[in-house]
Design goal:
The complex is a heterodimer of chains A (297) and B (244).
Chain A lengths: L18 H6 L6 H5 L11 E2 L6 H6 E3 L23 E6 L2 E7 L12 E3 L9 H9 L3 E5 L9 E11 L8 E11 L12 E8 L1 H4 L5 E2 L13 E6 L2 E8 L2 E4 L9 E16 L5 E17 L2
Parallel strand pairs in A: 2-7, 6-15
Antiparallel strand pairs in A: 1-2, 3-4, 4-15, 5-15, 7-8, 8-12, 8-13, 9-10, 9-14, 11-12, 14-15
Chain B lengths: L2 H4 E3 L23 E6 L2 E7 L12 E3 L9 H9 L3 E5 L5 E12 L7 E13 L12 E10 L7 E5 L13 E6 L2 E8 L2 E5 L9 E16 L5 E17 L2
Parallel strand pairs in B: 1-6, 5-14
Antiparallel strand pairs in B: 2-3, 3-14, 4-14, 6-7, 7-11, 7-12, 8-9, 8-13, 10-11, 13-14
The chains are: A mainly beta (297), B mainly beta (244).
């Protein structure tokens, strides 16, 4: 039976940064319901990423923001918020705040996810963080990107906040990201032990300026629930859904300024071993994404 | 291969499963019953025997889902028949049972709730003659039968999907990795509680389920439905009863 209450003292819930524990802290209301009052989703036409500023993204990343939709993942991860709401503003304890998507870093101030052939963000520090956490059992090989084109489609990337309600006394804010993967010629097929690996840097959520592998306490580096091969009403789908958020309970303060930055990469468990007996994992392409919160008044 | 050889009883201490959060470690062992007292009444939580003799029942292996009360196939068909076509093909390989235990957590002053339930941790063993590829298409499907509206209420079967748009169990079952080694496994730990502001008793209460290995082929039948192959599985469960 899924979604056993997290209060099992035989197996306490992990730290506050866990995606699942953060979601559970908000109660039973679905994410889309929480987000709905705050959202003015921008649903644009299908286009490639940052056409002038990000040549690699132009080939491999399609921006196709859609309305809220089913993901094929469990109830905490479906449906999506939908669209592309770049910012949300709210006032808490007399202070105005803005939650916004991080700029891509490319010219033109795009706030779309950024395609990457290899993880390169110096703050996230993907490669070193992953190696430090999992080098004992896994060996990571960076493949330098995809061979096909239009593999990643971004279908939801939106900020949200939710005012406290009778059933959810905390104020919540964050962002969702929903990406699907469809391999092109020469790209790894979805069924062959494919996963996602995400490394995130989130000082306010984790209590540390160091980055972490977002694996929800697994005995492996993979993202797990809400990432990988699933099925939606009879159709296979390979996707990633992330919904990092903070929930502020009554009497607590908001940690601001704060940011969430992550690099999320497609990975294949090859099942092969390196000479030292470690499981070899090939890492293909990914995206950089995130949000920030800051007081505005 | 008969049922006994398809089910290897290999109860292990608590161990990492490769799944996340509350599924990350099994309870371990084979604890078949536990007693507790709540508000001066005595209760016992125990594994279901399903006709097995003795007082320490194991899960029951099945080539095909066959429990008439759980009604695995008809429950699946009525819930998911519009989009999925299920083919029961019999066992392929077997399962190692590494944890099947009930548990009780006594209330404390700061947490005046008693929690109880059971876990099941299965690891798929393909065997020499299995034709199944170990990949992302291997999943599990579970149909669970439990009290629909509190203690003693009518038992109702349902597809255990945690709200997914598919019939698969999802987190806790399928292909994962444990410290560098691939594993196809199933983990579940349903629990209930007594206490809090409204609930004073959960007895009698019963959880019984059939959990089966499944393969989402990605192929379509003539009606356009996704073809899902179903292989061997197990029947398992627990109950809580008043013993006062």
């Amino acid at each position: 039976v899924n979604h056993v209450p997290s209060g099992d003292p035989a197996h306490p819930a992990p730290g506050i940064w866990s995606r699942r524990s953060l979601l559970l802290s908000a109660g039973a209301v679905g994410l889309s319901a929480m987000a709905a009052p705050a959202l003015a989703a921008v649903v644009g036409t299908r286009r490639t990423s940052s056409p002038d500023q990000n040549p690699a993204g132009r080939r491999h990343l399609v921006l196709d923001y859609r309305p809220s939709q089913q993901t094929g993942w469990g109830e905490a991860y479906t449906p999506t918020i939908g669209g592309h709401a770049r910012s949300a503003e709210f006032t808490y304890q007399g202070t105005a705040y803005q939650v916004s998507l991080v700029p891509s870093g490319h010219a033109g101030s795009s706030q779309d996810p950024v395609y990457e052939n290899v993880p390169a963000d110096p703050v996230v520090n993907f490669t070193s963080t992953l190696a430090a956490a999992w080098d004992a059992c896994y060996s990571f090989r960076y493949q330098g990107g995809f061979r096909g084109r239009d593999e990643f489609t971004v279908e939801s990337y939106s900020t949200f906040f939710q005012e406290p309600t009778q059933y959810n006394p905390g104020l919540s804010y964050g962002t969702d990201l929903y990406i699907t993967y469809k391999p092109g010629p020469g790209d790894p097929p979805v069924r062959r032990r494919m996963y996602w690996i995400q490394v995130m840097n989130w000082p306010g959520g984790t209590g540390s300026s160091s980055s972490l592998v977002d694996n929800d306490g697994r005995a492996n580096p993979f993202y797990g629930e809400a990432g990988g091969l699933t099925s939606i009403s009879g159709n296979q789908s390979f996707s990633f859904y992330g919904t990092p958020k903070n929930t502020v309970m009554p009497g607590q303060g908001i940690t601001a300024p704060d940011h969430f930055t992550a690099e999320t990469f497609l990975a294949q468990d090859t099942t092969a071993k390196d000479p030292s007996g470690r499981n070899i994992v090939d890492i293909y392409s990914g995206v950089k994404w995130g949000w920030q919160i800051q007081p505005t008044g | 291969m008969h049922a006994l050889s398809r089910l290897i009883l290999d109860y292990q201490p608590s161990q990492a499963t490769g799944w996340g959060d509350i599924y990350a470690t099994s309870l371990g062992g084979h604890s078949s019953a536990g007693d507790f007292i709540y508000q001066d009444a005595a209760y016992r939580v125990s594994l279901l025997a399903f006709g097995q003799p003795g007082d320490s029942p194991d899960p029951v292996y099945e080539d095909y889902p066959a429990d008439p009360a759980i009604a695995f196939q008809s429950t699946l068909a009525s819930t998911w028949g519009a989009y999925y076509s299920f083919k029961c093909l019999g066992g392929q390989g077997g399962f190692s049972v590494e944890s099947y235990s009930v548990f009780v957590t006594e209330p404390t002053q700061s947490d005046p709730v008693v929690r109880f339930g059971g876990d099941l941790y299965l690891v798929y063993r393909p065997g020499r003659h299995s034709q199944l590829a170990i990949d992302n298409e291997l999943q599990f499907i579970q149909v669970i039968r439990t009290n629909s509206a509190g203690p003693g209420s009518t038992l109702v079967s349902s597809s255990d999907t945690s709200g997914r748009d598919n019939p698969f169990y999802g987190e806790g079952a399928g292909l994962t990795s444990v410290n560098g080694s691939q594993s196809v496994s199933f983990y579940d730990r349903p629990l209930r509680s007594m206490g809090g502001q409204t609930i004073t008793s959960r007895a009698p209460y019963l959880v019984m389920a059939e959990a089966f290995l499944a393969q989402d082929t990605g192929a379509k039948d003539v009606a356009g439905k996704d073809i899902v192959n179903i292989y061997g599985g197990v029947k398992w469960g627990w109950q809580v009863q008043s013993t006062s």
